[in-house]
Design brief:
11 strands; 53% strand
Length: 115
């Protein structure tokens, strides 16, 4: 089982980025997938999750209305569309899956929001 996160980079405030989390070794559609982020010197922070079979999507208050999570089952990939980026969104973003009883994390992708 592997998770590969990509799509991070440098963006000015107000712009957009789309993160991808590609999986191998399991079908993402059968599991809830989450995105977390960790800023320097801070604890990991839950950002968003999509339920199995895309039966629901959930967001932290700090990103609600700006970020959107989605899944492409054919590509076995989950996306995090991040719009209207703010400097406080700067962090390393990780995707996460629980395949009971094991947790899996992607390697992280850096997002930097700065002018």
């Amino acid at each position: 089982v592997q998770l590969q996160a990509s799509g991070g980079g440098l963006a000015p405030p107000g712009e957009s980025l789309r993160l991808s989390c590609a999986a191998s070794g399991f079908a993402m559609a059968d599991h809830a997938i989450g995105w977390f982020r960790q800023a320097p010197g801070k604890d990991p922070y839950w950002v968003s999750s999509i339920a199995r079979r895309s039966s629901g999507s959930y967001y932290s208050n700090s990103v609600k209305g700006r970020f959107s999570i989605s899944r492409d089952s054919a590509k076995n990939t989950v996306y995090l569309q991040m719009n209207n980026l703010k400097p406080e969104d700067t962090a390393v973003y990780f995707c996460h899956a629980v395949i009971w009883p094991q947790e899996y994390w992607g390697q992280g992708t850096q997002v930097t929001v700065s002018s």
